[in-house]
Amino acid sequence: MFEDILRAADRMKQYIRRTPLEYSHWLSEVGNARVYVKLENEQITGSFKLRGAFNKLLSLKESKDKVFLTKGVIAASSGNHGAATAYASSKVGVPVTIYVPQTTSSAKVKAVKQFGGCLKYHGKDCVETEVKARADSEDDGLHFVSPYNDRVVVAGQGTIGVEVFQDLPEVDAVFVAVGGGGLIGGIAAYLKSVKPSVKMIGCQPAQSAVMSASVKAGKILDLVSGETLSDGTAGGVEENSVTFNLCKSLVDEWILVTEEEISKAVYHFIENHHKIIEGAAGVALAAYLREKERFWGQNVVIISCGGNISMEKLKEIILKWN
After folding, report:
1. Residues in Cβ contact with 63 at an 8 Å cutoff, skipping those fewer than 6 apart
2. Cβ distance 162 to 5 under 8 Å?
3. Apex CA 31: angle with CA 291 and CA 165, to 5°?
């Protein structure tokens, strides 16, 4: 995986934005540490998902796959991966159909549409949607671009780890929101290779903590997920997902946070950094804020994974905490 991540970084460098690793005076002061935020909310399309989507599509293009070049791809997403795949497809020059859950936020639907993706709705969470999209891709003979269950996609997300280490080789701990596990799996695969001592902290909403429960059980569980502000990480984990073993072997600990903690973290980040983030980014922030005393004096990185939040949710958060 390490070499795959390096190849991905080279392959994608002209297509993606190298996002800032911003020092946070606020978080550093409240936690008595040196805290940096990796601003993937400022990535093109508003989330880290662009990295995995581009790596997958560019890999297919390099292979000169005839089906890909003539018919395009199918993807499944709660929103961010859909927008990313739509954007990447437009740049690579192939058509794409995006399957999304019926619960997908209006902001993310708008993002998918503006980047040229054709939308299809199916299911109530990402697993149902993904199963349908995979089945249709097989029936139609099209390539499926998974949001996380694909080593090429995971390698693309791992390029964040490359940038983090280049900017802060002294990094001690990294907080990452986890849904399907592609983001933390990729980042950890790189960072653990170059600095084994780095602590990878998996962060999930208590309302939807399938991966952490699965790792604890030693197998992927089929659990019901509740409603959460962190819609980007909500839902189950696909059976036999390549990310499960990555999370099992590379994530050092798990922190679950409440909806109130997520909402408050989003509000305070906007207040202190004047940047909009989505619920999933709030999960990693909330996890650090809860456990900050354990990281005193350390170099901490928090991955702000995305900024695509609906105006309705943003208004609710501001009214709640203002």
Report:
1. none
2. yes
3. 85
